Amino acid sequence: MRARWFSVLAVALLSSCATGADEEDDGVIRRRDASADTGEIEEDTSAEEDTSTTEEDSRVVADTSVAKDTASAGEDSSTTDTATGGDDTGAGGDTGSGADTAPVDTGPTPCTGEEAEPNDTPSTARKLGAIDDCDGSGKTVNGVLSSSSDVDVLTFDGSDVFGCSVNPTAKVTGPVRVCIQAVCKSGTTEIKSCPKGVRTGSECCGAPEAAIEINCTGTTSEDTKVTMTVRGDGSSLTCAGYSLAYHY
Fold first, then answer.
1. Which of 55, 104, 140, 181 has its Cβ near the most Cβ atoms within 10 Å?
2. Rounded Cα gap, residues 94 and 143, in angstroms
3. Structural domain of residue 155, as residue ranges?
4. Is the residue at 100 inside a domain?
């Protein structure tokens, strides 16, 4: 009886040991499987980390390339603007030529008190209006010769009226001389003499006075167009003022 109990106990112990061994084996297998699974997970995680790192590296490279391209574009733009500015500056230099801005010569400066020029020909003469041949109808005007070569021409209409006599006369003061000419408005003009001054062509000239005696042939009227010309007396003149008294 006791021997059978020991036999049963031995069998039970052996079964227990076998079960424990199996459980240990199962535990080892489970631990191995878990370790393997953990390893695979860690490998997957490492792969994801590697992928993330690769993507980050790609972004860094791309960002760096963009930055370089942007910097290059900025350098190109700076170079272009600088070159253009240089060209513009050069053009401005050409425009600012000293020769182009030189003052324009407009001739001599007008003298104070000078009549409007030109008045040096009968067609541009200073017109003084009309007077008759009575001595009280005479007038006086003032003028200026800008230089020795300047000439002033003045005209008036002389009218022959009853009771007065015709004797066209001009008298000047200043460093000038005067010539006087009379042309009949009707008939033919005949120059009889130069009571004052010297005849020069169809004029009588003198300094300080000149007078002319005329006759209008073929008519009873001695209405005339009188022209007086004032010139320098031969001396050097600059803005030389004069006065001219005249009557018909």
1. 181
2. 47
3. 122-247
4. no
Is residue 143 located within the same domain as residue 231?
Answer: yes
Taking the C-alpha atoms of residue 242 and residue 115, their distance in angstroms, rounded to an integer, is: 12
Does 210 lie in the same domain as 136? yes
Q: Are residues 55 and 128 in the same domain?
A: no
- Tokens, residue 133: 């041949």
Q: How confident is the model at residue 8 (pLDDT cuts 50, 70, 90)?
A: low
The whole-model pTM stands at 0.57
Helix (H, G, I), strand (E, B) or coil at 68: helix
Q: Is residue 203 part of a domain?
A: yes
What percent of the chain is modeled with pLDDT above 70? Answer: 55
Predicted local confidence at residue 117, as pLDDT: 78
The mean pLDDT value for 197-204 works out to: 97
**Residues 3 and 86 grouped into a single domain:** yes
Whether 205 and 231 have beta carbons less than 8 Å apart is answered as: no
Whether 106 is covered by a domain: the verdict is no
Q: How far apart are CA 190 and CA 248, in angstroms?
A: 16
Look at the chain and count its residues.
248
Residue 155 and residue 125 in contact, taking contact as beta carbons nearer than 8 Å: yes
CA atoms within 13 A on the CB side of 204: 22
pLDDT at 12: 58
Higher pLDDT, 59 or 156: 156
* Nearest CA-CA partner of 168 in 178, 154, 158: 158
CA distance 23 to 95: 105
Q: Is residue 65 part of a domain?
A: yes
- How distant, in Å, are the alpha carbons of 48, 51, 55, 136 from that of 61? 20, 15, 10, 113
pLDDT at 111: 86
